Amino acid sequence: MEELRTAPPPPDADALSVDEELPSRPMVINIGPSHPAMHGVVRIMAELDGEVIRKADTEIGFLHRGFEKAAENSTWIQVLPYADRLNYVSALMNDVGYVMAIEKLMGITDTERSKYMRVIACEIHRIADHMTCVGAMGLELGAFSAFLFAMEAREILYDRVMELTGARVTTSWTRVGGTANDLPAGWLEKLQKTLVRVAELREELDKLLTKNRIFVDRTRGVGVISADEALDRGFTGPCLRASGYDYDVRKVWPYLVYDRFDFVVPLGTKGDTFDRYLVRVEEMRQSERIILQAIEQIPDGPFIVDDWRVALPPKPAVYGSIEGVMAHFKLVMEGLKVPPGDAYSYTEAANGELGWYLVSNGSGKPYRCHVRAPGFPILGALERLVVGRMLADLVPIFDSINMIGGEVEQ
Amino acid sequence: MSQRALELLQARFPAEVLATSSHRGDEWARVRPGSVHEVSAWLKGEPALDMKLLADVTAADYLVFDEAKPLAPDDPERIEIVWHFASITTKQRLCLKARVAAGGSVPSVVDLYRTADWWERLVWDFYGVKFDGHPDLRRILTWESFDGHPLRKDYPFHRRQTLLPETDVKDLVRGPGPGPSDRHMPFSQRPGARRHVRSDSYD
C-alpha cells in the first residue's frame, strides 16, 4: 500500500490535456417525468454543453386522462367535476369558466348575487394559486420557511372554500344559472378575518423572498422574454404581464361584475423570472382588494336563476309538486338541453386566459368540449426560456410559469 | 362585438370566405382550407385588426353531429379546424374555421404564430389532420406508436391500447446496445409470456 501511495504518476499523465481526456460531446440528461422539481409529470430531455442547456425537448402526456373524450360522453353538468380537476389548485376558476361557457351558448345569465359570489370564489382561488406558485418557487430555491407561510395562507383559504362548497380541492360548486348553494351564514365575516391573516402571511412571504439575496440572484435576469415574443408564443396571464404587456381579460373584456371594482393590473418590466414572481405577489394584493369590495357590494337575492329548464328546482318543490319532480327528473336523466351551436368563452384564470370552446348539437351532451389551458402554450415555450441558461436555472424558470399538469395534459 | 373585423375580412377575401356568423358575441368566418395561412397573415398584419394573439387552435369532428344523418367517414367536410384570434389593442376577437376530410391537411401558421406549434401537434394527435409546413409534427399527448386519433367520433370511447413492448434504446454516448433482451422487459411482455389480454377483445 505504501508503495502505491508514494508511486510517481504515470509518465504520460501530464502530457494529456484536460480537453483531450474528457469527452466534449453534448450530454443528454433526462429530467422527469418523476422528479420533485417537475411538479407532476413533465419530462424534459435537456442537451447539455457543460452545464449550459443547448436544447430542451419537453414531453408531456404522462397525466393525460382523456378529459375531452370523457366530456363528450357525459351530460353537460357531469363534466363539471372533471373541469375542476383540470387545475386542482384553482378549481373554482375552472368551474366558473366552464359554466359561463354553457351560459354563453344558451344565452342566459346568472343572478346578480351569484355573480358576486363567483367573483369572490375566483379571487380566493387566485390568491391560493399564486400562494402555491410563489411558495413552491421559494421551496425549490431553498427557502423552506417561505413555503410554510404560503401553505398556511392556502390552508386557511381552503378552510373557507370548504365551508362554502363542502370540498377543499374538488369543489364542483357552480351551476348553470348560479351556484350550488348560498353563502353560509356569517361566512363573509369569517372570510374578512381570514384575509387579514392572509395579508400578514403574504407580507411576511414578500419580506422573506423579495429582498432575499439568494432568491434574487437565482431569479433576476433569468428566463427573460420580451412582450412581443411572449404574445407571439401565446403567453397570457401573469407571465405575459411580467413582460410588460397589459392584457388581463378582467379589464379588456370584463365578465361577471369585474367592471365594478377598483383594481389595478400589475405589470413587469423585464419579463424575467423575478418579474413573474413580483407580478404574482402584487396580484394577490389586488385580489384581496376585489374581495373586500365585493363583500361590500354583494346584493341579497337568489343565488340561482328560477328557471327549472336549466336549474334544479328547490327541494320542497321536488317533494311537493309534480312539476318539480318532472323538472328534476328531466334535468338529471336527460341533462340540459343546450341549443345547437358553438361558443368560445374566456375568463382570466390564475395562469392566464382559460378558454372553453363548446359545440352542442342539441342533445344532452357536449358534442365537443375543448379547454384552452393557459399553461399549455407557456409550457410549449419552455425551451425558448431555458436554452442558453445553466441547468440550475431550469428550476426557477419552470416554477415561475406555474405549469399545472392537470390542465395542460387534459 | 367584432362585426367590423368580419366585414373587413369579407371585403379583403371575398372568394375565400365561405360563410360567416355572429352569434352570442362570437364572430366566426369559414374559409377555404388552402387560404388559412394567407388570411392569418393578413389578420396579424392589418393595422385595423392587429390580431397578434392566437389564443387557441382546436378542431371538432362533425361525423355524427346530426345523429339522424351521419356523414360518410370520408366526407370532405368532416373535420372542422378552429383558430381563435384576439387583438388586445383593438379589443376584437375573430374565429376562423376550415373544414377538411379526416386525414386532410391545412397550412400551418407556425411561421406567423409560434404558439401554433403545440396546438397543431395537439390537433394532429387527436384528429389526424396534417399541418403543411409544421417543422415537427409529432404526437404530443399520446405516444408515437398510438393507433388512431382518439377524439374522432368513430374512435370507440372504451378502447384501450397497451403501450408497446420496450424497444432497444440507442445509447447516445456508447452507441447501440446489445439488442433487446428478455431480462429488461416486464414479464407480461417477454416473448414467451402468456397474454392476459386478447387483442381482439380490447373493446
Structure at a glance:
Chain A has 410 residues and is mainly alpha-helical. Helix content of chain A is 49%, strand content 12%.
How would you describe what is shown here?
- The complex is a heterodimer of chains A (410) and B (203).
- Chain A has 410 residues and is mainly α.
- Chain A folds into two domains: 25-59, no CATH class; 67-409, Cytochrome-c3 Hydrogenase, chain B (Orthogonal Bundle).
- In chain A, 49% of the residues lie in helices and 12% in strands.
- Chain A has 19 helices and eight strands.
- The mean pLDDT of chain A is 86.
- Chain B is of the alpha/beta class.
- Chain B has two domains: 2-132, Beta Polymerase, domain 2, CATH 3.30.460.80; 168-203, no CATH class.
- Helices cover 16% and strands 23% of the residues of chain B.
- The mean pLDDT of chain B is 80.
- The chains are: A mainly alpha (410), B alpha/beta (203).
- The interface between A and B is large, with 49 and 40 residues.
Write the layout of secondary structure elements.
The complex is a heterodimer of chains A (410) and B (203).
Chain A lengths: L1 H5 L11 H4 L5 E5 L11 E7 L2 E8 L7 H6 L6 H6 L6 H16 L5 H29 L3 H22 L8 E2 L2 E2 L7 H24 L2 H7 L7 H6 L5 H5 L6 H4 L20 H25 L17 H6 L1 H13 L6 E9 L2 E9 L5 E7 L2 H6 L1 H5 L7 H8 L3 H4 L2
Antiparallel strand pairs in A: 1-2, 2-3, 4-5, 6-7, 7-8
Helix pairs in contact in A: 5-6, 6-7, 6-13, 6-18, 7-8, 8-13, 13-18
Chain B lengths: L2 H10 L4 E7 L2 E6 L4 H10 L7 E9 L17 E9 L4 E9 L4 E3 L8 H12 L2 E3 L71
Parallel strand pairs in B: 2-5, 6-7
Antiparallel strand pairs in B: 1-2, 3-4, 4-5
